[in-house]
Amino acid sequence: MPHSNFDHVSSFELLHPDIQRWIWEQKWDSLRPVQDKAIRAVLETKEDVLISAATAAGKTEAAFFPALTRSFSAASGLGVSILYVSPLKALINDQFLRLQDVCNRMQLSLVRWHGDAPQGDKHRLLKRPNGIILITPESIEALFLRRTTDVSKLLGFLQFIVVDELHSFLQGARGLHLFALLQRIDAISQHRPRRIGLSATLGDLSTAAAWLRHERPESVEIVTDSGGSPELRLQTRAYLDTQPEEDSIEEEETIQSSEPRSKRALDLIADHMFKVLRGENNLVFAGSRRRVEALSDRLRRRSEKARVPNEFYPHHGSLSKELREELEHRLKEGKLPTTAVATTTLELGIDIGSVMSVAQVGAPRSMSALRQRLGRSGRRAGNPAILRIYVREPLLTADSDLLDCLRFQVIRTVAAVRLLIEKFVEPPSIDPAVATVVLHQVLSVICQRGGAKADELYALICKGPMGVVNKSDFVFLLRSMASNTLLEQATDRTIMLGELGELITSKHDFYAVFQTEQEWRLVCSGQTLGTIPIVNSVGVGSLLAFAGRRWRINAVDDRSKVLDVVPHRSARIPKFDKLASEALHDRFVAEMRAVYEDSDLPAFLDHSAKELFQGGRSAYRKNRLDITRFFKTQRDTHIFTWRGTSLNSAFAIALAGAGLKCTIHDIGITVSDTDLATTKAIVRQIASTPPDADSMSAFVKNLRNAKYDEYVPEELLRTLWAKSNKEHVMRIGDLARELVG
Asked: Where would I find the H helices in 170-218?
């Protein structure tokens, strides 16, 4: 390859000749900056590497080109060289297509290892382990449990473990699960594989580095892309609604057979989307599955009324894999204009090509999610990133609450845009699923090995983020598991599976640490459309809105939990699990306060949004919220803490411990049925005698949220809550003193 075509010849020349030829044939003008840096980091050091760059910056090649170069010479013929871990099967399929040509050229196996992947490729790899495995955490778990004699042969000679969408694993039960699985891979490896983390959305890079290598985070080589972002074009549109909140729009979203006489906010939003999104590829993030179905139906109806082809299709986790993949392929192919109306399912890096714009229904609460979504637009050189945010605010009446008057949706949107410009991203929070994952991994390791000693289990499992479980906590958990017949102990102190442990580990859903509820499966003419929760009351003749269409239930197979459906003109949206509200970070709430106190009028707000925005500021100033921290309504008292969700939640528990009934809101806490004097007196008491985390844990409710928490002693759950929330509890005294002055 002529050197003059490359600005970074030395990095290019470090790569394997087959990769160099492949790059030449693709007619690349140069390596991208992140690729140049990553090649050096991987090939010129022996450390783990963290690659953080924008969507479509070339992170896949940045990781795999040097990893393939190194592993081809270091471990050829010994076993699998690279394990690529993804949170999504769809992303695995994308990366398979992206890497297939290079791997064929190097005569290396490239195998997808998940439930929907071809079995033949897996069997051939087992006979001659080499190359790359593309896998999910759940399939790694299945390897340990169902192929115990093969797992060392497959994974014992790994050179690299590549973790894609790393930010999605930095918190949550799946992240803890993957961390534990990587520890177990290290334990069976001839030498510890180097780890390469990839992400487009990272705030505190040191936190991600600590996840990659918890014992030496400072050693991780960090590669970032300093390239500029595309031009951002932004608009926020606001609509008044009598019931804008998620919990109170269910009746509004019940689909009728004809248009309502007076259009509601969601109808007006659909009108605008139909007008501006047609003719291009777009993504609409609608939040809940219920709202996705409601909005998709409205958009399809508008297409039918206008007698034009429908371009709007839903995408969420309850839809069948086939329907989701069909929509993803249509977007990627780009031959027909297509708008996907999604929950969070299209946030991660599934290859859907370039979209013209991104829209979001509801004000952002997470900067990480907003940045990830916006990264889908403006990926082609010279094209701007286009973002439309649609918000609904309550229609005020004479007795409207002050919180409604403050117009949180519009204010939060402006704050989010400011933080987007500042490139702020929330750090990950401590996950409460630690106990479930530790219990799950105890069962899994024993199942894999046939038995293990307590000290071996502790040393293997309780590291990194699960190190919050100390030895005494661990022994307490083991004893409780034995009392539940999850475990039993032999005379030589070897711990084995008990009767219940054998039963749990034999189930197919054991591979995953997240809940999988029983559901109805919807089928039309033999094609599976997807599933709905079993809590839905169904029968022959029942009407459903699903997959962007309307259906009538024609037959019910109660034993197999199958609903046979046929198209129909009317329908009702089924009940889905309620969407948990994303936590607001302290920095986000501080920016909201700054927005209230400033005097600018953002140009990206439409006329209605500007009026509501100014109304929110007016309510803030009228009620002197710059200095007022307590506000009495007819029955309740609002406390304006100006802190994020985590600290507000801890403070609310402290108030509950004093006998108050509390709920948290965007910028503070509401104390129900309590006068101002009583509320202030209790806050003063907390200020003078702040609680400690151990005593507060006694007042925490709903501790059993993760999959196997039912088998964890409540005392241990409270202990772990106290450890995880110690920092927030320590801040309660300072906050209380600030409030009472």
From this structure: 173-188, 205-212
